[in-house]
Amino acid sequence: MDLKGKNVIITGASRGIGKSIAIKLAECGCNVIIAARNQEALDNTVEEIKSKAAGVKVIGLSTDVSKLEDLQRLSDTAFSEFGGVDILINNAGVSSQYPFDKQPLEDIEKLAHTNFLGYVRLIRLVIPHMIEKKAGSIINMVSGSTLVDPVPKTFVTYSSLKVGLRAFLKGLFWEMRDHGIKITSILPGVVDTELTGKLDNITEEQKERLMTPDAVVDMVMFALSVPQNACPLELAVINQQTPWIKPIIDYDQKQAK
Ligand SMILES: NC(=O)c1ccc[n+]([C@@H]2O[C@H](COP(=O)([O-])OP(=O)(O)OC[C@H]3O[C@@H](n4cnc5c(N)ncnc54)[C@H](OP(=O)(O)O)[C@@H]3O)[C@@H](O)[C@H]2O)c1
After folding, report:
1. What is the average per-residue pLDDT within 234-255?
2. What gap in Å lies between CA 96 and CA 107, rounded to an integer?
3. Is the peptide bond before 150 cis (omega within 30 degrees of 0)?
């Protein structure tokens, strides 16, 4: 796909994996709307993107993906400011690690509304327009933890919602390929971001095993580079020595932010 002039929404793009994807796509000539809750962090990221990518439109829109009205505003803004959405990167996510019986109920709600419903709802909002155009690419940040069966202990809620998301996206692929729309799931291992940085008791040796967001950006770029008649349905990029062998995260974890 020639990325120049393509219009992109990226959720969870004020930092971490989403920010790295936004910078790369803007450098490739895409207009990007980046979404996250904290407007100040978004503004800083918008400035950073603009300093690295000239001649593209960059908008930072405060959005809570767990709220339907915010998603509607995000989608409406893409249409009013850019005239449409060619690429949706569903990436915003929170983490919460507990043995299930100790996990706060509010964390369970937040995980479901952010990491699952936030993705499904935004796809539902943009997809009618992609169907009309018979084109579009929807790339979703799932998780390498979905490759583990049963899902890792103390990650049961987080990972099982990602398993559900992965199943949803696989099913959606079959429906959408007839419309010329590509649906891709990316399954990253453990990446060095604030999401993992929040976790307690990671040793220096374990930190060295984390991937940088660049490894995930490469997956996104691959997904967008394959010929039009092919779709990478799922791309996993896993730590060479996977932390799930020896859990790096203590269960006594802060609540999802
Ligand atoms: N890091 C890993 O090891 C790893 C591994 C596998 C999968 N993933 C997945 O990759 C995605 C990105 O993770 P990351 O590691 O880059 O996390 P991160 O560094 O914590 O960044 C998360 C981003 O999402 C935003 N966000 C969180 N809740 C939101 C909400 N309700 N509405 C809108 N934006 C929200 C955050 O900004 P605000 O807080 O300002 O909203 C931030 O921009 C997540 O879906 C995560 O599950 C990560």
Report:
1. 63
2. 7
3. yes
Q: How far is the CA of 132 from the centre of ligand 1 (A)?
A: 30
- 246-250: long-range contacts at Cβ-Cβ below 8 A with a sequence spacing of 24 or more? 246/206, 247/152, 247/153, 247/154, 248/190, 248/199, 248/201, 248/202, 248/203, 248/206, 248/209, 249/97, 249/154, 249/199, 249/200, 249/201, 249/202, 250/199, 250/200, 250/201
How far apart CA 30 and CA 146 sit, in angstroms, is 31
pLDDT of residue 207: 74
The domain limits of the chain are 7-245
124-171 pLDDT tens trace: 999 999 999 999 999 999 999 999 889 988 899 999 999 999 999 999
- Residue 119 annotated to the active site: no
Compute the distance from residue 91 Cα to the ligand 1 centre, in Å: 6
The pLDDT value given to residue 191: 92
Task: Judge contact between 247 and 153, C-beta under 8 A.
Answer: yes
**CA distance to 49, 105, 209, per residue, from 138 (Å):** 22, 30, 29
Place of tokens 């349905």: 233
Which residue has a Cα nearest atom 46 of ligand 1? 93
Rg (C-alpha) for the chain, rounded Å, is: 17
Options 3.10.150.10, 3.40.190.10, 3.40.50.720, 3.30.70.580; CATH of 7-245? 3.40.50.720
Per-residue pLDDT tens for 52-91? Answer: 999 999 999 999 999 999 999 999 999 999 999 999 999 9
Rounded-to-integer distance, Cα 169 and Cα 185, Å: 7
Amino acid letter, residue 234: E
